[in-house]
Request: fold
Amino acid sequence: MAPRSFWKGYLKLSLVTCPVAMAPATTDNEKVKFRTLNRKTGNRVVSQYVDGVTGKAVDEDDEVKGYERGEDEYVMLEEDEIDAVGLESTRTIDIEMFVPRDSIDWIWYDKPHYLTPDDPVGEEAFSVIRDAMEATGRVGISRLVMYRRERAVMLEPRGKGIILWTLRYGDEVRSRDEYFGDTKNGKSESKMMALVKTLIDERTKPWDPKMVDDPVQDRLLEVIAAKKKGKKRPPKPKVEAEKPSNVINIMDALRKSIASEGKKKS
Reply:
């Protein structure tokens, strides 16, 4: 059974509209989560806002958003003032424009969501929008209120559905030139390239989701299971990290690496 959608609305392209449902493509529900407890009583610890000067607890009705304009100087904004600058409609994904799929660098991608038709009658309209984007190599750009903020979103056709990516804001992405600008761009020596390509070929495998398993989570679950049974799991022995040696001759290091890979396979 498919997970419940967390958002329902409409996908709109000009005069073509169809009902859609959306669900996050990722989840952290399986992650081990901890609560902060009072060691003496075993009760949960509750957090609350306190006044930074008086130290007294602040009632929820007295909490207000503030924009810092100077040291200890703030402009206060009420919730209705913040809401007033958002989109009028929060339930329509109106595709405003299309761009080539490969023109948006991956660094702009934020969170992926599955977008699916929510009505058999509207499935044809959904399918034709999806298939037309696929055929032209384009992705759709729209704006939507999600997670209490207005966001630019990208609609990418994928199989039978559409992946809706929230995109990062312009001030969140740093220019790569600031970091890569001084890196040398000369061509690598052909012999070295050939050896590195050999190493890459030796280590190439089909993608498997197990490659991104979380071993720390597995060990935490073992510790929790042991504590439930009243056992204490022995601490993991500390292993000193091996320090890499200074590479003097890259060609020698590459040849030794390839020889090592061959021994592992045999």
Remarks:
- DSSP finds six helices and ten strands in the chain.
- The CA atoms of residues 50 and 56 lie 5 Å apart.
